[in-house]
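Hey L., structure's done. Input below.
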Amino acid sequence: LAELPGDAPVQDVLHHIGRAFIENVGGAAGPLYGIAFVRAGEAVNAKTRLDVASFEKLFTAGIEAIQRRGRAEYGDKTMLDALIPIRDAFRSENADGKSLRECLEDALDAGRAGAEYTKTIAARRGRAAIIGERSIGVEDPGAMSSLIMFRALCSYLRG
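Output:
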């Protein structure tokens, strides 16, 4: 990212992040996060500033990429259990009249609840699916890593 100019389009930033995940993170998470970041960038293409609608658009594109690649849905005990609630906080029916800052806070709360929710369900996808019911009581690592990344983004945007 240091190579990019400070006013680089969001698409370029997200593409670089996606490539870094694909090239450097092992297991299923690297390719899943990688394609999500690349597709999210494509969804907002040349924008240099993001608004509430842009966040909804980029999260939707990233989620759809993960769903296609990982064949997972909400409730499968995956990263999607945090990402989908985060995205939903930016949807017009939830975000109407709210500032970006308010939506980010709502999304962070929703992501926390989504990650916490994974403790209550059995894994149906990913590596934890092998242990199924025994995964109840443990947060999904993908949901937690999604929450950690989103929390870092919120912290950065707050300044």
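Helices lie at 10-24, 29-44, 52-70, 80-88, 92-95, 100-117, 141-158. The chain has a mean pLDDT of 95.

-- N.
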